[in-house]
Amino acid sequence: MKNKVGIIRKILAAVIMLLVLVFFSACGLYYFERDGQPDAFSSIGDAMWYILLTLTTVGYGSVYPLTFGGKLITIFTAVIGSLIGVACFIGIVLGTLKLGTFLRKTQVRILNR
Amino acid sequence: MLNDVNGGQSDLQKKLGEIVEGAVFSGIIQFLILASAVAFVLETEPALEKYENYFIIVDLTFLVLFSAEYILRIYTAPVKKEFIFSFFGIVDLLAILPSLVLIPGFRVLRVLRFLRIFRIFKATRFILAVDRMIDALGGVKRELLALVILSSLLVYLSACGIWFFEKDAQPEAFGSILGSMWWAIVSLTTIGYGDVYPVTPGGKIFTALVALVGVGLIAIPSGLLASVLTEARVEEELQDETKEKEDEK
Prior knowledge:
By secondary structure, chain A is mostly helical. Helix content of chain A is 79%, strand content 0%.
């Protein structure tokens, strides 16, 4: 039971971290891109849509940055977000799924020897 | 010819069997598989179309060599029937059948030459870890089945959801749930071709959810396989250790 609470906490922490990242990069993109592409980046919400597509690696290609600043933020977000953030998220999910039982099994086996 | 001392095999069979299992023979076959795969790819290059006749000669050479290998393997197999119907026996046969249509009488069947791609499966014989992989996959059969069911469920739910949000705004792309399934699969696998995407706020928020679930969905099988493969390896090592201990006693 204690373990379960810990997992939920970890997932929550990862989600919050990702949300903060999404928020800040969306603000940055909105700042850089709104002049060049007023249709695609008309609000921070629109920029968030773009960031989410990037972070989840879906990348429809419907909106993409044109300015140097926008591209720089995208690179930063994509690397930090999808590699570290999403990987954390995945790791936590997987950790709860299978690896835990595997490690316990091996431990028991080593102790029994 | 039959000799019970050698398990029903003649001296010649035994000798040839040793050659077939040997490193030199394996190396030659591996090279031939690679060469045939490269030739198959180059054949489709428009710039090389004028050399078509040479490609046919090369292919006939492969036909002869692979046939020889197939016959050798049958000849040296301890139980011939077992080899012919084994996985690699069938793959070896499939590797030579498509090229047979090059022989004049069979010209009509030239389309079948495309099946030469199956030659590449011959290479799996030389991948040593394949056994471990198959064992590991067998160990997570249930989990994999659960994943297949779960993904189908998610595709279904995503398609229904996006159809609800987008049917009025984009009747062409999201007019039916069946049509929306294309979008659902492209998004859930995080491929994202971008040929269809949501435009309504509700659809966008729903897509964010679907995409996040998609990342997790892709990760689960990879993690599952990774952990199972480690498990298989640790188990092998543990077995080796216990064996060593018993030997010491």
